Amino acid sequence: MKTMRLLWAVMAISLGACSSLDGKTAHEMVKVSAQRSLTQDSQYNFAGEMQVSGRELTQEELSRALTDHKGSLVGMAADAMKEYPAMGYYLEQSRIKMTGAVDLPAQKVELIPEWSVQARNDHASVRMPILFDGNDMSVTVDMPVAVPIILNFLVEPAMRARLVHEPIRFTLADASKKASQQPIKTAIQAAWIASSRAYQDMPAEQFQLLPLDAFAQESGAKYRIGLQWTAQNQQAYFKAFTHHWGLAFDRLQQEQPEPNVNAQAYQNLRAAMMKWAQKWLIEEDWLEPLFGQNVMRNLYLDGKGRLVGYRDYGQSQGKKQVLNVETRMKLFNFGKPKFSFQPVAGKSISLAELLKSIQIQRTNK
Questions:
Q1: Do 242 and 274 meet the contact criterion of CB atoms below 8 Å apart?
Q2: Under a CB-based contact definition with an 8 Å cutoff, are residues 137 and 184 in contact?
Q3: Which whole number is the average pLDDT over 84-111?
């Protein structure tokens, strides 16, 4: 018995040593993290937010803007915020928050987007809980009350009270019979896998270990890894993403074929996705027209390589001021995610019911 205990202790120590990131390069750490995200770290909660802030151009930036300014959408927004300071103040006091839960073994993802503002004499918050269920490929949405207010003018009386208290549920079958015969579930699963695998194939020198910052402490990270989203890195990532998506899609077709989906449907969707990815992900540079310059991504890992947070921040220069855009996200409750939006079975409005109610109301007018 003592021998067995000693053996188990040695194995535990060995496994702990293997899972440590000590001595690894930044790219090696990312590889470990990407693999964990697809295996033992596939259940967690997340919480984050996006915010914007503007500042005046320095004299040097102003001179450069007059001679060598490249317009971008965010840069145009920066100038608009300067020209209309009330709007600028309102946007700076606003936050787009995102909370939810992921449970890949259970095939469920909860997403709760929220817009909130804390401004002078103006406090508001709007949430919209959404539950994606891969078991029946359904999406259940608990609408903000403003939506039922509008819909109440369009539906029959019997449906009006239900819209206040019940969420709306959509399925692929609701969209069309043809949609339910497409390998949509396989495509989504392949995209999730590819999004992690793609980091492993990017050039190793693009990942850098950075000093820990306040967000590292907040998220419980031991390592902070930086990646600059240049046009070259963007292209490298999406090339790898497209490659791994194809591999995962083919494997899932063989290992987990979807019922009522034939081989031709798989072939058609795969070809369409590859064509779309080549044109819009690999060949198209969407960072330049959006920001005008590069965006920084920081990955925050714990001592074993678990991704516990990430932070994206970009700065776009207009002709009058600079706009900073920052997104940060924390991951927690690994292995035991908590779902706050739990629709009651039979207590939701199907898309077919909603459309029928609208049709009845039109007929009765």
A1: yes
A2: yes
A3: 96
